[in-house]
Amino acid sequence: MLLAAKAALATVRTFLSTVPWQVWAVLGALAAAWLWGNHQYSNGVKETDDKWEAAVVELQEEAEVAAEVATAKKEIRDAEFASDQTELQKEVDNAKTDDVAGPGVSAYFSRLRRQANSTSD
Prior knowledge:
Layout: H1 2-17, H2 21-94, H3 103-120
Helix pairs in contact: 2-3
């Protein structure tokens, strides 16, 4: 077995020694160029990944700010709505009870008329 391996190795060595040195030089230059290109590609991938990660962080920060603004606006709308509901309930409670449509409808339409008059002025 060892003898067969030595014979195979001798055959390979004989074949390789018949190849001119210029072929080995070209193969070495190609290998070096390939390794350099692989190195440059890896650097480019890392740089691109870094840019994407920075963009993700920036967008997350913008999303947090937008969420805070939306929450603040919602709280304002909720407060305005509660105020409007309280005011409308007071108008309903104070409305005439002998209206044909009922006190709630009368109060609602009187409020709409006041809003229309205030915006048209």
